[in-house]
User: Fold this.
Amino acid sequence: MKKEFTLSERTACADTFKRSGKNAFTLAEVLATLGIIGVVAAMTLSAVVQKYRNHVVETRLQKFYTTFNQAIKMAEVKYGDKKDWYIDASGVELDDEGNPILSTSEIDRWFSKYLSSFIVLKRKSDKDGRLLYYLSDGSAFQLGVFGNASLRDIYFYPGNPEKCQIDKYDTLRGVCVFNFEYYPASTSSGWKYHYNKGLEPAKYKWDGNVNKLLNGNERGCTTGNGSYCTALIQYSGWKIPKNYPKKVRY
Assistant:
């Protein structure tokens, strides 16, 4: 049997419907809310991704530093004081067309003799006169640079060198390529933080002023060419400091 509503019941129902209609969201309001949520989520995700990148770079930097120096110490047991067997070796020879001539690198011969037994490599390659050594964790390091192939200059890539745009390492220092130096034999004042040391973050000509690691005119992480970025991270306990001026990646 169909129920008949009284006038007062119908009036109350209409009032409830009107109130509920006033409290409902319009389509525009729903879309605006979703947009705001999307922006906040994107910002949060970006921060989370960068934090993870920082962690990977920090971990691989410290691991490379430790691995390379352990290899030097083990080589000293076999060959004696590192200052005696260090040589300021040259890089890969190039042919008339600028292509690398395989097996001509004095640097590679030195590395193969003294350190290759103590550092596990995934593979190595000659690229435009650069010696690239790939490690099992996805990182790589480079001995010598194109145009200045000297063993003392060691570049570390937390990820794939090609992904880092290896040809642009001058502008990507402290982002996806990091400067180290190994020059234990020099007694000149510019190399005082490297004399009789193993592998160290680049500190050539550093005066000991921590602020210069960030703002040194020539090599500072912010105002210079970025050579001191690695030392800045090491000084912070192998952590990317809050005032670090670049977004690292690998």
The first strand starts at residue 121 and ends at 127. Helices lie at 7-23, 27-79, 82-85, 106-114, 169-172, 210-215, 229-235. The mean pLDDT is 85.
